[in-house]
Amino acid sequence: MLKYLKDGILIKIEDYEKNILDLKENIEKNFFDVETDFLLERKNKKYYKDIYNILNEKGHFLYLIKDITPQIIYKKVQIIEKKIHSGQKIEIDGDVILLGDLNIGAELIATGSVFIFGKAKGFIHAGSKGNNKAIVVANEINLNHIKIANIMAKYPKIREVSVPEKISLNNNKIEVERLNENEFKKLLEKSGEKIEEKKSFFRFVFNKKRV
């Protein structure tokens, strides 16, 4: 299992054979950028050599780190500044802001809300531990299914015009509503992130030609 951290991608070993097979498949398909930093906890040191050989063949790096707990791994708001490729699964404790695309076949799971400044095409699960107040907001959404808390639904068919949308639960039913730029910014502010730091990105997002 892979978990995205500030300093790299943590390789969590739960079922060694399965986890190593999944890692090898992802690496061979070049799902990660060149020279990506991977992290391995010291309690899994016995697997270091095998994992190092898999990563080294594709030019990636592996570092041993102290054993860590979820409280240390995650911040209240986690920012991911890259695309999440098909076959990748990222789990976050708290809210997550993705500055990039969630590609088809990728999964993004968060105990809090999910904000995507890009195209949302993969699988999204917000409020994964039962938080029915969690929401999903994305600049452009093209999903098959969406899940919030314990409720999963098929996403409405693709809109003719792509606009930012908010997905939330209302009486245990998933609802979708269109947003304008100011509404989009306000929702991000509620997640605790300083909007001023992302002004240039907002201008890019909302000035794109819609088709």
TrEMBL record:
<dbReference type="InterPro" id="IPR013033">
    <property type="entry name" value="MinC"/>
</dbReference>
<dbReference type="GO" id="GO:1901891">
    <property type="term" value="P:regulation of cell septum assembly"/>
</dbReference>
<dbReference type="InterPro" id="IPR016098">
    <property type="entry name" value="CAP/MinC_C"/>
</dbReference>
<protein>
    <submittedName>
        <fullName>Septum site-determining protein MinC</fullName>
    </submittedName>
</protein>
<dbReference type="GO" id="GO:0000917">
    <property type="term" value="P:division septum assembly"/>
</dbReference>
<dbReference type="InterPro" id="IPR005526">
    <property type="entry name" value="Septum_form_inhib_MinC_C"/>
</dbReference>
<keyword id="KW-0131">Cell cycle</keyword>
<keyword id="KW-0132">Cell division</keyword>
<dbReference type="GO" id="GO:0000902">
    <property type="term" value="P:cell morphogenesis"/>
</dbReference>
<dbReference type="InterPro" id="IPR036145">
    <property type="entry name" value="MinC_C_sf"/>
</dbReference>
<keyword id="KW-0717">Septation</keyword>
<feature type="domain" description="Septum formation inhibitor MinC C-terminal">
    <location>
        <begin position="79"/>
        <end position="176"/>
    </location>
</feature>
<dbReference type="Pfam" id="PF03775">
    <property type="entry name" value="MinC_C"/>
</dbReference>
